[in-house]
Amino acid sequence: xxxxxxxxxGSQIFANRLSQLLDEIEIPYLVKxxxxxxxxxxxxxxxxxxxxxxxxxxxxxAQSTIDDFKQExxxxx
Length: 77
Description:
- By secondary structure, the protein is of the alpha+beta class.
- It has helices spanning 12-24, 34-41, 59-75, and strands at 4-10, 29-33, 50-55.
- Strands 1-3-2 form a 3-stranded antiparallel beta sheet.
- The protein is globular, with a radius of gyration of 13 Å.
């Protein structure tokens, strides 16, 4: 069974950027928007509420892209 693992949690803008990078290397991903889900359900969430998941089996292929992305956003802070 192929399990999802969380590779990022942060803002919508950064999650969209990582999603784009994963598309470029043809890695399927799942975006979980906890903030929007909470709003629809009638309660709010705080902080960085967008999570990006990939299949565990794709981690090795995606790792360098994820690492480069995290370095890029850390440099912007």
